[in-house]
Amino acid sequence: MKLSRAIRPRALPVGAAAVLGALVLTACGTDDNTGLPGAIDYTNENVECGPEGSLLASGSTAQANAMEVWVNAYQANCDNSHINYKATGSGAGIQEFLQGTTAFGGSDSLLGEAEIAESERVCRDGGRAIHLPMVAGPIAIGYNLPGIDDLVLDADTLAKIFDSQITRWDDPAVQELNPDADLPDMRITPFHRSDGSGTTDNFTSYLHAAAPDVWRYEPDKNWRGKGGQAADGSSGLVGMVQQNAGAISYFELSYAYENGISAVTLDTGASEPVVATVENASTAIASGEVIGTGNDLALELDYATTAEGAYPLVLVAYEIVCDRGNAPGTLDLTKAFLTYTSSEDGQETLKEIHYAPISENIIEQVRERVAALS
């Protein structure tokens, strides 16, 4: 039985959302600790269990909601297996993986050449770190603007807002994009991540590609823009937007959906502005190309696409593992868990919590890489 049909996200209170970014995601039996509503039936006959034991991983907060559901589903079916995923941010996840303290790391940005070289000290038997794309989805631009439920912005305007060049909501540039809106004379308060973040890397990659004349900073996991305020983790940004009228920030769509936060519609240059939805993100992600070599499945995305119905502000969350030379004590459990997350059931679940499954041609390659891990 597929568990995905039973999942329906709801809004979380601010206090609960603030905890999520630092949460260690675990479950025992059929307990539901996802923060998602209802009595979710995690029993799934298609889960192939690995050995008993414990697995520690950390990283991307953008994939935390997906990882939470996967962990609960796996553990509901596999007695005495414990998967602990710490949603600490992509930067911390990569660092802990390269220190050899986790079985795999979650990251929304690609490792650099120096980090791949460093991974050769952690991966035994001549192995190296590879990227396994496991979950994708739109990055929502969430905002708190009383009385304004629909807001259109383009890349240039967003770049100016997040670089403190546009500072008020009734600025002419914002009004031009929203001619029918009664925009308030209110200060804009942009919030960005204080921690190293793959979501920041993807957001700034979009600004750099789609608004190159305005956003002159190179994409980075660490924030480079001027001004604004900072918060830790995606859940920290959610809390700041909820608590501050005039605030605007960026986080994975599932966070906006669960917390009832309005999201910007993007004017991409297509005939109609594009709404942040899983379907529109999938349209943009489908044009991504594998640029990794050997066993690596790193993808290159087109953040500046103007294709009809394509929402270009997207991210792909990767699980970072050794292609060979993984720690013998965790190898089999790592393979079993990632076999489930990349399975048809594991990917189908993502649609119900506002993530985009990885395209079939790519996820088939992920399954092959997971089966070959040694």
UniProtKB/TrEMBL annotation:
Alphabetically sorted, this entry's keywords are: Phosphate transport, Signal, Transport
Q: Which residues form the signal peptide?
A: 1-27
UniProt-listed Gene3D superfamilies: Periplasmic binding protein-like II
Highest taxon of the lineage: Bacteria
Q: Which InterPro entries match?
A: ABC_phos-bd_PstS (IPR005673), PBP_domain (IPR024370), Phosphate-bind_PstS (IPR050962)
A Pfam family = PBP_like_2
Boundaries of each PBP domain copy?
A: 53-344
Q: Which NCBIfam families match?
A: 3a0107s03 (TIGR00975)
Q: Which family does it belong to?
A: Belongs to the PstS family.
Report what the protein is called: Phosphate-binding protein
- Give the species: Streptomyces sodiiphilus
Q: What is the lineage of its organism?
A: Bacteria, Bacillati, Actinomycetota, Actinomycetes, Kitasatosporales
Gene name for this UniProt entry: pstS_2
